[in-house]
Amino acid sequence: MTLAAFPDSTFLPLHSSDRAAERLIRERVADAVSRALGDGRLLAPGSHDEDRVRAIIDDEVTAHDRRAVTTNSPLLLDADAVRRRLFDSVFGLGILQPLMADPAVEEIIVNGPLRIFTIRDGHKQQVDGLYFESDDELRQLIKRVVSSAGRRLDEASPMVDVRLRDGSRLNAVISPASTRWTSVTIRKFLLRVQSLDQLVELGALSSAGAEFLDAAVQAGLNILVSGPTGSGKTTLLNALGASIVGLEERVVTVEEVPELMLDRRLPDCVALQVRGKNVEGIGEITIRDLVRNALRMRPTRIIVGEVRGAEALDMLMAMNTGHEGSLTTIHGNSPRDALDRLATLAMMADERLGGDELVRMVSRTIELVVQLRANARSGQRRVASIFEVTGVDAGVISGHEIFGLEHGRLVFKGRPPRCLERIAAHGVDYTLPLGASAEGLA
Q1: Band of residue 65 on the pLDDT scale cut at 50, 70, 90
Q2: Strand 169-173 vs strand 159-163: parallel, antiparallel, or unpaired?
Q3: Torsion, Cα of 186, 188, 194, 195 (10° steps)
Q4: What is the C-alpha to C-alpha distance for residues 297 and 291, in angstroms, rounded to an integer?
């Protein structure tokens, strides 16, 4: 066979006879690769290195079948598939690589060696016939992948969150942080939506809601995107960012794991990302460090992928100091929950501001909350509410819905938002959807 043309990664159940043979061949391949390349070269392989590994694998598979003939042992039933898996065990994600190559798979969940799940179109299902021989095999695979990203995974550092080369996000937990098995979650990087219009096409947003959000972004309103895990917060943030126009705009994005693609689409955009501690326990760069540094880069807007801690205070202060039109996301089940949580997170900062003061700061800073919802049965992700913040009433952040769900459709609620004056003042051409109540989601 041609060495440079191993078969594509396609998941098929492994024959039991091939499984035992593959285990022995893998050990021989690992030794041969280590002698030929050295472990260091595997962290950043070139095309020549990959060709050498393919040659080693082909030699070992061929040698195995020769030995099988001479000893009257069974030949490999699917030698090409064995070659593919062996190559993936060196440079890819081993038996998980076919799932990574499947465009329909959004997420991969591994609960120990025997339970592997995928999420397709929002639905979770267990993958039959796919498993690791042992937890140690799974753990060693993940350690290799993590080390190639410059991170570590061991007893001293049993949790890790890294970005893979294709942009996917891998989280792994081993003992002693986990009670028994190695746990792995991979959220694949699937940038299927790049604009609000595409969200409308997918049925996640009404056209009237999209027009309003586009006008709000252009007018420089500070927007908080709220929703549970997997509801599409980053996707919506990408779409909102695409509405930022003009060479006068300078945008700085801050993320723990890079998922936004705005630096590739906006004319003046800088992407910053968190860095964890190195082996010596130093060199950490936090979200808060990046937000503070972003303020020194003369941005017109700052976009934080997600606020989870004390950086909430820095984000609020940035929005209040000439960076109108900034965007961020937060975990929340409703707009009011999201606003309350933002104030609570800001309390975690060393500045130790009072709760009442932070509530007032949130009410003066955040102008819109876009609430997302994911349907567990259908897998449908959609905008459930567009909420305008109006102030503080009896110590509680007040506001009202501009758009909300009625009978499964996102409709204009009929109450003119206060931000219309801001939109008009920025010269944005926008008209209230007074006749939009019939529009919505299918």
Answers
A1: confident
A2: antiparallel
A3: -50
A4: 10
Q: How many alpha carbons lie under 13 Å from residue 257 in its C-beta half-sphere? A: 18
Contact between 174 and 182 (Cβ < 8 Å): yes
Burial class (CB in 10 A: 0-12, 13-18, 19+), 44: exposed
The predicted model gives 311-340 an average pLDDT of 92
Last residue of some domain: 129, 155, 190? 190
Question: Phi and psi dihedrals of 351, rounded to 5?
Answer: -65, -20
Compute how many other C-beta atoms are within 10 angstroms of the C-beta atom of residue 49.
Answer: 17
The CATH number linked to 169 is: 3.30.450.90
Residue 299 CB coordination number (10 Å): 21
The pLDDT of residue 161: 86
Is the Cβ–Cβ distance between 151 and 162 less than 8 Å?
yes
Higher pLDDT, 290 or 103: 290
Taking only the tens place, the pLDDT of each residue in 94-144 is 889 889 988 889 899 999 999 999 998 778 899 988 889 899 989 989 998
Q: Is the pLDDT of residue 253 over 90?
A: yes
Is there a contact between 139 and 182 (Cβ–Cβ < 8 Å)? Answer: yes
Please report how the helices 311-319 and 287-294 are oriented relative to each other, as an axis angle in degrees rounded to 10. 20
Residues 408, 297: one domain? yes
Q: Which of 432, 334, 436 is nearest to 384 (CA)?
A: 334
In this structure, how many other beta carbons lie within 10 angstroms of the beta carbon of residue 170? 22
Q: What distance in Å separates the CA atoms of residue 282 and residue 47, rounded to the nearest whole number?
A: 33
Domain CATH number, residue 359: 3.40.50.300
Q: Spell out the residues 6+ positions from residue 174 whose beta carbon is closer than 8 angstroms to its own.
A: 139, 142, 153, 154, 155, 158, 159, 182, 183
Are residue 82 and residue 103 in the same domain, yes or no?
A: no
**Based on the number of CB atoms within 10 Å of its own CB, is 95 exposed (0-12), middle (13-18) or buried (19 or more)?**
buried
CA distance linking residue 359 with residue 398, whole number of Å: 10
Measure the CA–CA gap between 375 and 408, rounded to whole angstroms.
Answer: 11
Burial-class residue 197 by CB neighbours within 10 Å (0-12, 13-18, 19+).
middle
Choose between 43 and 236: higher pLDDT: 236
How many domains does the chain divide into? 3
**Amino acid occupying residue 11:** F
